[in-house]
Amino acid sequence: MNVSSLMPVLLLALLALALAVGAGMVVLVRRLAQRPLRFPQAPRFNLEATPSILLELPSFSENRPACWLAVRSVNLAAVQAALDLHDPRPCSWLEGFTTRAGLFIAPPVNGWILVAGAGVPDPSDDVDACYRFVRELSRRLG
Q1: Overall domain count for the chain
Q2: Within-domain flag for 39
Q3: pLDDT, tens digit, for every residue of 51-74?
Q4: N or C: at which end does the chain have fewer Cβ atoms within 10 angstroms?
């Protein structure tokens, strides 16, 4: 048997293998499609059983800060110094985002520090002031 007579047999075997794998995939997909999908049940909350203090908290969507910026740093003290903050006080995220005056500096998350509040200039008010603020902050932090 020479190579030229063996080639058609090998090609037919390869075609048969491809068709068998394709048919197997079709059967597998059909079986999986017939099974109902089961998702885990979400926990159910009983609003009557929750403390009333949770229902009286201010809504975050109404009080979220208009301006914010993210600083690529893990050094919270360096960001505070670059923003010329002299007497920072700790507060919760909710307090920080709902306070109308000052700046809220969040702890580092994945190498980024979030700065939000009325102390961050609004680009829609004065884009030049916003640019100068970000440029100076960038110069101080590197």
Answers
A1: 1
A2: no
A3: 554 545 555 555 666 788 888 888
A4: N
